[in-house]
Amino acid sequence: MFVCVHNAGRSQMAAAYARHLSGGAVEVRSAGSAPADTINPAVHEAMLEEGIDLTDERPKILTPEAVQASDAVITMGCGDACPFYPGKRYEDWTLADPAGQGVDAVRPIRDEIRARVAALLTDMGVDVVA
Question: What is the pTM of this model?
Answer without folding.
Answer: 0.94
